[in-house]
Write the C-alpha coordinates for this entry.
Amino acid sequence: MSATWGKCFDPTGARLGIPTYPWRCAPDGYATLRQLRARGLRPGGQPIAAQVLRPRYRRGPLVAYLYRLDRAKQVRPMTARKWAALAKANAARRTCPSCRRDAGYVIPLSLGMCVPCAYPDAPPPGRD
Protein backbone atom coordinates (compact mmCIF):
# COMPACT_ATOMS: atom_id res chain seq x y z
CA MET A 1 0.00 0.00 0.00
CA SER A 2 1.46 3.36 -0.98
CA ALA A 3 1.73 6.16 1.55
CA THR A 4 -0.63 8.36 -0.47
CA TRP A 5 -3.24 5.63 -0.69
CA GLY A 6 -2.86 4.89 3.02
CA LYS A 7 -3.65 8.49 3.94
CA CYS A 8 -6.98 8.17 2.15
CA PHE A 9 -7.96 4.81 3.64
CA ASP A 10 -9.81 4.96 6.97
CA PRO A 11 -12.82 2.61 6.75
CA THR A 12 -13.62 2.86 10.45
CA GLY A 13 -13.48 6.65 10.60
CA ALA A 14 -11.13 6.58 13.60
CA ARG A 15 -8.64 9.06 12.12
CA LEU A 16 -10.83 11.36 9.99
CA GLY A 17 -14.17 11.17 11.79
CA ILE A 18 -16.16 9.43 9.05
CA PRO A 19 -15.31 6.37 6.97
CA THR A 20 -12.88 7.42 4.25
CA TYR A 21 -11.89 5.54 1.10
CA PRO A 22 -9.47 6.26 -1.76
CA TRP A 23 -10.87 7.64 -5.01
CA ARG A 24 -12.91 5.00 -6.93
CA CYS A 25 -12.61 2.48 -4.09
CA ALA A 26 -15.84 3.10 -2.18
CA PRO A 27 -17.81 -0.02 -1.24
CA ASP A 28 -21.17 -0.85 -2.77
CA GLY A 29 -24.20 0.77 -1.20
CA TYR A 30 -22.81 4.32 -1.25
CA ALA A 31 -23.26 7.04 -3.89
CA THR A 32 -22.36 10.69 -4.43
CA LEU A 33 -25.01 13.36 -5.01
CA ARG A 34 -24.56 13.14 -8.78
CA GLN A 35 -24.84 9.37 -8.73
CA LEU A 36 -28.00 9.61 -6.62
CA ARG A 37 -29.52 12.12 -9.04
CA ALA A 38 -28.69 9.88 -12.01
CA ARG A 39 -30.69 7.13 -10.33
CA GLY A 40 -33.60 9.48 -9.60
CA LEU A 41 -32.82 9.67 -5.88
CA ARG A 42 -31.97 12.34 -3.30
CA PRO A 43 -30.28 12.10 0.12
CA GLY A 44 -33.56 12.80 1.92
CA GLY A 45 -32.08 14.45 4.99
CA GLN A 46 -29.62 11.71 5.86
CA PRO A 47 -26.19 12.74 7.13
CA ILE A 48 -23.02 12.14 5.14
CA ALA A 49 -22.20 8.45 5.56
CA ALA A 50 -18.65 8.36 4.15
CA GLN A 51 -16.24 10.19 1.88
CA VAL A 52 -13.76 9.43 -0.87
CA LEU A 53 -10.49 11.35 -1.13
CA ARG A 54 -8.26 11.93 -4.11
CA PRO A 55 -4.86 13.31 -3.16
CA ARG A 56 -3.56 16.33 -5.05
CA TYR A 57 -0.14 17.89 -4.90
CA ARG A 58 0.28 21.48 -3.69
CA ARG A 59 -3.39 21.67 -2.66
CA GLY A 60 -5.70 19.81 -0.36
CA PRO A 61 -7.33 16.57 -1.49
CA LEU A 62 -10.49 16.41 -3.58
CA VAL A 63 -13.37 15.22 -1.44
CA ALA A 64 -16.61 13.57 -2.55
CA TYR A 65 -19.20 12.88 0.11
CA LEU A 66 -21.11 9.62 -0.01
CA TYR A 67 -24.68 8.84 1.03
CA ARG A 68 -26.26 5.47 1.70
CA LEU A 69 -28.41 4.13 -1.11
CA ASP A 70 -30.80 2.28 1.19
CA ARG A 71 -31.76 5.53 2.97
CA ALA A 72 -32.11 7.63 -0.20
CA LYS A 73 -35.56 8.82 -1.26
CA GLN A 74 -37.15 9.39 -4.64
CA VAL A 75 -36.75 12.83 -6.21
CA ARG A 76 -39.85 14.94 -5.86
CA PRO A 77 -41.55 15.54 -9.23
CA MET A 78 -41.66 19.05 -10.68
CA THR A 79 -44.99 20.79 -10.29
CA ALA A 80 -46.57 22.99 -12.94
CA ARG A 81 -45.67 26.10 -10.94
CA LYS A 82 -42.02 25.04 -10.68
CA TRP A 83 -41.88 24.44 -14.45
CA ALA A 84 -43.41 27.89 -15.03
CA ALA A 85 -40.92 29.55 -12.67
CA LEU A 86 -38.02 27.81 -14.41
CA ALA A 87 -39.27 28.90 -17.84
CA LYS A 88 -39.64 32.48 -16.61
CA ALA A 89 -36.10 32.51 -15.17
CA ASN A 90 -34.62 31.13 -18.39
CA ALA A 91 -36.54 33.70 -20.46
CA ALA A 92 -35.10 36.46 -18.27
CA ARG A 93 -31.57 35.16 -18.96
CA ARG A 94 -32.23 35.33 -22.72
CA THR A 95 -33.79 38.81 -22.78
CA CYS A 96 -31.43 41.66 -23.68
CA PRO A 97 -31.69 44.53 -21.16
CA SER A 98 -30.99 47.22 -23.79
CA CYS A 99 -33.19 46.20 -26.73
CA ARG A 100 -35.68 44.03 -24.74
CA ARG A 101 -35.67 41.26 -27.37
CA ASP A 102 -35.29 37.53 -26.82
CA ALA A 103 -31.78 36.82 -28.08
CA GLY A 104 -32.43 33.08 -28.47
CA TYR A 105 -29.41 32.29 -26.26
CA VAL A 106 -28.31 33.10 -22.73
CA ILE A 107 -26.87 36.62 -22.63
CA PRO A 108 -23.14 36.43 -21.75
CA LEU A 109 -22.36 38.03 -18.40
CA SER A 110 -19.17 39.46 -19.86
CA LEU A 111 -21.20 41.56 -22.34
CA GLY A 112 -24.33 42.23 -20.29
CA MET A 113 -26.36 42.53 -23.51
CA CYS A 114 -26.93 40.64 -26.73
CA VAL A 115 -24.12 40.53 -29.29
CA PRO A 116 -25.77 42.95 -31.82
CA CYS A 117 -26.23 45.54 -29.06
CA ALA A 118 -22.69 45.03 -27.75
CA TYR A 119 -21.12 45.34 -31.23
CA PRO A 120 -23.42 47.58 -33.30
CA ASP A 121 -20.81 48.30 -36.02
CA ALA A 122 -20.01 44.64 -36.72
CA PRO A 123 -21.42 43.16 -39.96
CA PRO A 124 -24.15 40.53 -39.58
CA PRO A 125 -22.83 36.96 -39.43
CA GLY A 126 -22.53 35.08 -42.70
CA ARG A 127 -21.80 38.12 -44.87
CA ASP A 128 -18.32 38.98 -46.10
